[in-house]
Amino acid sequence: MQDNNTKKRREVGLIITLVVIVLALAALAVIGFLTVKPQPDTVQGQGDATEIRISGKLPGRVVTLYVEEGQQVHAGDTLVHIHSSLMDAKMEQATAMESAAAAANRKVDAGTRSQIIESAHDVYQQAQAASGIAQKTYQRMENLYAKGVISAQKRDEAKAAYDAAKAGENAAKSQWELAKSGAQSEDKQAAQAMVNVAKGGVREAGAMLEDSYLIAPCDGVITVVYPHESELIMTGAPVMTLQKQDVHAVFNVRENLLKNLSRGSKIKVHIPALDKDAEMTVYYVKDMGSYANWQATKATGSYDARTFEVKARPEKPIEGFLPGMSVIYLSTIKK
Questions:
Q1: Which of 142, 173, 184, 329 could form a disulfide with 43 if both were Cys (CB 3.0 to 4.6 A apart)?
Q2: Is this prediction's pTM over 0.90?
Q3: Which CATH number fits the domain that encloses residue 200?
């Protein structure tokens, strides 16, 4: 009988203990719910900078690299020397073609040789003299025919001889004038066109050879150098990457957090690596596309939020701020 009472007391005590524990946990949960407030969403981004691929039109062999990775360069600095024996040969060929075309054009412009012109002029003078004699003979025959001294046949023969002499004079004159005028205008235009074509070939080869030395288009830092010296590169192949000195912050933001990050907004950020706060201005906001959606976790009561890329540049240069550093959005500065 005593054992049963003891057993019952133990069960009652266990139940009471469990009830106390449950009440204590419930009380802690209520206290936590009332006192602990959810932290606002943190918008974190990172530093970034514009990168430029340095490449050229000239295929060839890398002769000399004048810079190395991590080196600071300025606009106009020579970066690399590329040599192409093939383009050198093409330049020589184009130059020779230009010289040949120019010589042919000069020959056309010079016209007919003076000896040929003088010979044609002599022939014309002879034909002119013969025509004059034939004209006088025909006039005499015409007068004699009018007086009835000669027959009509003799007069007609003299007339035919005069006409033939006159035609010969005209032909000789045409030959003389043709010799004086030189080549035809079509020949001159064709010769000039060949000169222009040859000059175009020289300019094309020269444009290619201009890229035998690649220079920095702006100030920046060389981040990557792809080929080594003596390696061959193709047309348009990147030789190195130049990072501009325009370090800015990039954030990927859900659209429900975007209301204070419109273009032109001034924001306050924190850079943990520098333990420094800074002010920036938002200059770029763009939807990242459907692949960057934040999926809803509930079947109802929520929606899929799109992600936007937001870029902001510092109000003034931040010493030590490098691409890749974390940037924490703190607040939007009221105007």
A1: 329
A2: no
A3: 1.10.287.470
